[in-house]
Amino acid sequence: MTAELTRGQNHPLPGARLEIRVSAGTPVLAGATLGDENGTVHGVEGVVHPGAPTLPGLEVSRQAAADHRLAVDLDAVPDSAHRVSVLLALPAGGSGPARFGAVAAPFVAVTGLDGDEVANYTLTGLEAESAVVALELYRRQGAWKVRAVGQGYAGGLAELLTDQKLPQAHQLAAIIHEAVASGLARSIPAPPAAAPAHRPEHGTAPRTGPSGTAGPVPPTSPYDSQGASGPGPQTPGAPGQHGAQQPYAGGPVGPGEPAAGQPAAGGPIDYSHPRRQTAAPPPPPPAAPPAEPGQPARPVAGDATGWSMEERLYNQVWGMFEDLARTTAAYRSAVDFADSRMEKELDQALSDPRNRIGGQGDAAREAARGRHAQLVSQAREVLDRDVAQLVAEAEVVEPALPAAFARWDNPVWHAYRVPMEIPMAVRLGDLHLPEADRIRVPMLIRLPLERGLWIDSGRSASLDGSFADPHEMRRLGLETAVAHAARLLAVYPAGEFTLHVIDPAGSGAQALTPLVRSGVLAAPPAQGAAGAAEVLARLTQRVDLVQMALRGGAPDALPPGLDTSQQLLIVNDFPHGFDDRAVNQLRYLADEGPAVGVHLMMVADREESAGFGPLLDPLWRSLLRLTPVADDHLADPWVGHAWTYEPPLVPPGSQVLQQVLAQVAAARGSWGR
Asked: Structure pTM?
C-alpha cells in the first residue's frame, strides 16, 4: 500500500534499489546530494546533477524535463553518506517560470524497480521558491527511510547548496545551470497550456497512453513566458486562442476595436486578439464505431479537442508523441529493472560458497538469466502492442494532415493554394526512437516561431556510421534551410512573410536557386561584408522600432512603409565574412527578434566559429539545432529521450517545391509585395 506523505512524515523503505519519479507542470532539473549525519555536503563530488549525472548508487537525468526517473541503489552509496537529499530546481536565465508558485505543485514518488509505489509526496505551499529539497533518504539504525521535506529556497540552487554547507555552492550552482541550459537548447518546445497535448474523450477524460494509463497535465513549454517577471515573447491565450499571438498588429482591425497591443488604461499591453473566443472548445467529432470485442479501438483522424480540424490534428499528433515517449520510457525502465535484478541474483549466487562447485551455481545462473529474458520479453510485448496501436493511428492521421503539417510527398501539396490564415504550427521534420523505428512522429513547431533555427552544417556521422564530407554537409545544410524557408513561405498568407538571405562569399548560389528564380526573396542574397552589414543593420533597426512602439503603447505609430510582416533571415556560411559587430547583431536578433516578428536561421558549423570563443555560446543555445542528415540530438519535453531527427527533404526529382514557390511569388505579386 502506498504511503501518501505530508511534510515531515517518514516511511521505511523496503529495499535498496529504488526509483524516484518526479512529475512537474514545467521542465525542472533534478539532482541529489550526499550528506553526513548532520546533512553536510563536503564537496562537489557529493552532488549528482545534470552536468555530472552519476555517482555511486545515484543517477539523474542530463537535462531539465517535466518528468524524471532517478535511479537509486542505497547499497552502493558510500558508507560516509547518511542522507540522500533529492532536490528540484527551475532552470535559471530562461523565459520559463521563475518560481514554483507559478506552476502546478511537483509530485514525487518512491517506487521499487518493479514499479510498485512505496511512498509519494506532493510539494504544496511553494511560492517564491525556485529550488526545493523534495525528499530525503536517510539511515536510521542500519535501515533506510524516506522523509518528505519540501524545504524551498527563494535564492535558488546556490542558497540550497549553501544551506547544506557546501563550500563551492555558488560555483556549482552556476555549473549546473549551464549544463541545464545546454540541455534545454536541444529540447523540442511542448505546446502551450492553451493547446493541451492530451485528448479528452468527448470532453470527459484525458487522453490515455497506449497502455491505458492517463498521463499528467502536459507541461508548458520550457520557452513559455508565464514566469514571475510577466509576459515575454509570447503569452499563451485562453483555450481556443491557438497559443500565442503576434505582439503587434500585422493587418487592419475591425471598426471600433482597439489595435492589437493597445494597453488598457493604466495596465500592461494586451497582446491577445480582441475577437478571440474564450469559451471552452467544442468536443471532438464522434468516435469511430466500436471495435470488435477484445480489439483496440479503431483510430480516427482528428480524435482530439480543438476549435478546428487543424487544432484537433495538432493535439492528436502531440498526444501520439507523448504516448510514444512514455511507453518507451516504461519499456526502458522495465529492462533496467530486469538487468539490475539479474545482476543481483548472479552476485548472490556467486557469494554462496556452495554454488561455486558443481552444477548448483550453473543452475542458479541459468535461472537468473531465464527470469531476465522473461521480464524483457514481457516488456517488449507491451511496447510492441503500444507501438502497433500508434502505427495504426499514424496511418490514418498522416493522410489527413493539412499542408503545414504534411510531408513534401503528401498529395495535399498537389492542391496547394496560398492560405488566407496563419496555421497553428509547421512541420520541420520527423522524429523516431530506436525501439519503435516503425513510426515517425511529425515534429510540429508552433507559429510564429519562438526560437530561431540553426541548421548544423558541421561534420556529422550518419546513422550507418559513415561520415559526410564537409563540403557535402555545407551543401546539404543550405538545401535543408531552403526547404524550411520554402515551407514557412508556403504556410503564411501572401505578404505576411518576408525572406532575406546573407551569403557573404556567394558559395550557396546553387542551393539558393529555387528562392532566387521564383522571386520570393525580398532582395537578392546579400554578399560581402558590406551587404551583410546592411541587412543586419536594417533588421536590427526594425526590432528596435517595434520594441519602442510596443513599450510606448503605440503599435500604430510605426514609421510609414515599415514592413510589418514576419521576417526570416537566412545566414549562410557563418562565420566567414562576419566581424564582432555582426556577431553581436546576430545575437541581438536571436534574443529579441522573435518577440517582434524577426527570426533567424543560421547555416553554420559551430567548430568553425570557435575563434569567437564564449561570445557565441548564448547564440547557439538560443537556436533550435536541426541537422541536414538524420541525427539523434533532439529531446522530448517529458522524459528527455534522445530522438532521431530526420529533416523534411523534398523527394528526389519532385517539382513540388518549385510549384509551391511559384504560387507564393504569384500571390505576393498580386498583393504588390
From this structure: 0.74
